[in-house]
Design goal:
mainly alpha; 73% helix; 0% strand
């Protein structure tokens, strides 16, 4: 394979792999598989928390006391595993929304996911940055660093 044909060959292999995965794991099966994986993780974290509290996991918060934008994400899974939806949302509502988005997001190419990938990179990064900023503002408020 020459250098000029490598990208085409790689693209072709990727497309064949995606078609095989989509035909086998498309639609509701994807949602069920991802939901089952998240449920197992949530139950395991809830059990870990109930038997042996690991304390603060976030390195930024452990070293400085200041929470990061994703602080509370582990707590979201622990609270969901324990069946406390309100506590999970209070821990980090952005993580809950992102988790639901990833649960139902189509992973393969198609009309359902094409709108996101058609957006300019700058706009996608802006959406991600705004979500991170909102999450961090929530965490700063939650831990008393920011009064709203």
């Amino acid at each position: 394979m020459t250098l000029s044909t490598a990208p085409a060959a790689i693209r072709s292999a990727r497309q064949q792999w995606e078609r095989a995965v989509a035909s086998r794991f498309g639609g509701p099966v994807q949602v069920l598989a991802r939901g089952s994986g998240a449920a197992v993780l949530a139950l395991a974290l809830a059990e870990l928390h109930a038997t042996d509290d690991p304390g603060v996991i976030c390195p930024l918060r452990r070293l400085t006391g200041v929470p990061c934008p994703v602080c509370g994400s582990t707590t979201v899974f622990m609270e969901l595993g324990a069946g406390h939806l309100g506590a999970a949302v209070a821990a980090n509502p952005v993580t809950v929304l992102v988790g639901l988005g990833l649960l139902f997001a189509p992973l393969r190419d198609g009309a359902a996911s094409a709108w996101w990938w058609r957006l300019p990179t700058r706009r996608r990064n802006t959406v991600i940055g705004v979500a991170a900023a909102l999450s961090w503002a929530w965490q700063l408020h939650r831990y008393g660093f920011l009064s709203i």
